[in-house]
Write a structure and sequence with these properties.
Blueprint: H1 2-28, E1 32-33, E2 45-46, H2 49-67, H3 76-101, H4 106-122, E3 129-132, E4 136-139, H5 144-162, H6 168-187, H7 190-210, H8 219-236, H9 249-254, H10 256-271, H11 284-290, H12 295-318, H13 321-341, H14 344-356, H15 361-370, H16 373-378, H17 383-396, E5 401-406, E6 409-415, E7 428-434, E8 441-448, H18 456-475
Antiparallel strand pairs: 1-2, 3-4, 5-6, 5-8, 7-8
Helix pairs in contact: 1-2, 1-7, 2-3, 2-7, 2-8, 3-4, 3-8, 4-5, 5-8, 5-10, 6-7, 6-8, 6-12, 7-8, 10-14, 12-13, 15-18
Length: about 500
């Protein structure tokens, strides 16, 4: 046990020493993450923390094996796997470092990840059998290679996807690493125990600089390396002993949050008809932030869920049949509760409906009349005439109501053919569009919706309505809309926005 503690402490100190060096190096080579887009940080942050984690872990592992007493306990098979771990993790760290410095295409990254997974398989990190709790043992046979590659590549990308908040990925990896260490130590799997103790120490040393507010990110170099090490070590210990009661369920449970987040991301992008590897802001941590939870509390919530899952994984590893069953039920309930808490079921239901609602009735009604608006407005010469067109629009598009607001004051109100007392409507959906800069006006549309959400097509068309309305009010000299300044003459090659007026026949 003393050797494991020593490895943990040495790796933690080494990472703490190397991280400031990695931070300066990242600034020197401009390997930084800039604010904007799906990134939520407000300043430039270096993203080469993986260098400190990789360096601290590798130096400690090699030193422990060569100079420490633990190395004498390794047999030939463990030494061979250690060489495979060194080669595969170096490949993954190098890929991540190149991606941090100069973005690599998703397909090329996937090919290198498959290569690293194949290297690991050739060095003995294999899923030859799967021992499922309560179901029995299943031999993989010729499917050992593809299943092993799928597992390793999946975990690599799961850790990478969860790396979205300060300290989030590092903390999840730390708890999962501790879980793997406990299982390996109690089973007497020296190789896995040494590696997991070292990696956990390196992550903890880095976490001092990475926890909110972060001074450095681990980047893809760190997430790829850590994901690879977790993936191979989780199958090196449990599955190398035929008599072991530990199954593939143990690492799956311990890494439950990043795995679930990855699966949800794949489903979400499929429903939205986007590439599987395209980035977005729909991950679990983003959903927590969108609920109004602070950055640090969102990370602590996921930490708490991860710790509970890790406890469940240990219970699955060493519990009796009824204890394993209870742990599986508890873990399932916890993950189900997390998904419900962040509103993912509702999110997926809305995404699925929006795919089918391109021609929904209110979108279709508005689409049929929106192209007539410019011509209708052109026939009006005063503000009252413009507002008569809005009344016509409310009726023809079958809105419950259209309201023109300035702050909290109602300027105009038009009712549609389906209008009822709005106070008595339970299924009314509203959408707000801003009426030009400087006017302070908003157009609020309300209509009966059986779903309660606004289709994106409706949002776009309502903004077009407000743009045309603002132009018409300016043309008739309405005091509600400030007079636009005279535009500068357009350059010869400048882009001219197309008119909404229908083409002359």
């Amino acid at each position: 046990m003393q050797s494991y503690v020593t490895s943990f402490v040495v790796a933690a100190v080494a990472a703490a020493v190397l991280t400031p060096f990695a931070r300066r190096l990242a600034f020197h080579f401009n390997i930084v993450s800039t604010p904007g887009g799906r990134h939520i940080h407000g300043q430039v942050i270096p993203r080469l923390g993986g260098l400190a984690i990789f360096g601290a872990a590798m130096v400690t592992i090699i030193g422990t094996v060569v100079f420490g007493p633990v190395g004498a306990l390794f047999d030939a098979a463990e030494e061979w796997r250690g060489l495979g771990l060194l080669v595969g993790s170096t490949v993954m760290f190098s890929l991540g470092a190149v991606d941090d410095f100069k973005s690599v295409r998703a397909l090329h990254k996937l090919m290198v990840q498959i290569l690293a997974a194949a290297i690991a398989w050739s060095f003995g990190f294999r899923i030859d059998v799967i021992d499922l709790p309560l179901l029995g043992t299943f031999s993989m046979g010729v499917f050992s290679l593809p299943i092993t590659v799928f597992w390793i590549v999946g975990i690599i990308n799961a850790v990478n996807l969860i790396d979205g908040l300060d300290g989030l990925a590092a903390g999840v990896v730390f708890f999962a690493g501790v879980t793997n260490f406990v299982v390996a130590y109690l089973q007497g799997t020296t190789f896995v125990a040494v590696v997991m103790a070292t990696v956990a120490g390196a992550v903890l040393g880095f976490l001092f600089f990475n926890f909110n507010p972060a001074r450095i990110f681990m980047g893809d170099s760190g997430s790829y390396f850590l994901g690879f090490v977790l993936a191979v070590c989780s199958i090196a210990g449990p599955l190398q002993k035929a008599s072991a009661a530990v199954s593939i369920a143990v690492p799956i449970v311990a890494l439950g949050v990043p795995i679930i987040d990855t699966l949800l991301a794949m489903v979400r992008r499929f429903l939205e008809r986007r590439p599987i590897f395209s980035p977005d802001r729909g991950h679990i941590h983003h959903r927590l932030l969108d609920m109004g939870i602070t950055h640090r509390r969102a990370v602590l919530i996921i930490y708490g869920v991860t710790v509970a899952l890790c406890i469940g994984a240990i219970a699955i590893a060493f519990g009796r049949n009824w204890e394993v069953g209870a742990a599986v039920l508890g873990v399932s309930a916890l993950l189900f509760g997390l998904i419900r808490f962040i509103g993912y079921f509702e999110y997926l239901a809305v995404a699925a409906r929006q795919k089918k609602r391109i021609n929904s009735r209110h979108v279709e009604w508005l689409r049929r009349v929106i192209m007539q608006l410019p011509a209708q407005f052109d026939r009006r010469t005063d503000e009252a005439g413009v507002f008569e067109v809005m009344e016509w629009l409310a009726r023809e598009a079958r809105f419950d109501s259209l309201e023109l607001l300035k702050g909290e004051q109602r300027v105009r109100h038009w009712v549609g053919a389906d209008y009822e007392d709005m106070a008595k409507r339970d299924l009314t959906t509203t959408a707000v569009s801003v009426l030009g800069p400087g006017s302070g006006l908003e157009l609020v549309a309300a209509w009966r919706s059986e779903y309660g959400d606004v289709p994106p097509q409706m949002d776009i068309m309502l903004q077009l309505v407000t743009d045309v309305l603002g132009t018409a009010l300016q043309r008739v000299g309405s005091p509600l809309v400030p007079v636009a300044s005279t535009p500068e003459p357009a350059a010869p090659d400048s882009f001219v926005a197309p008119s909404l007026k229908p083409a002359a026949r």
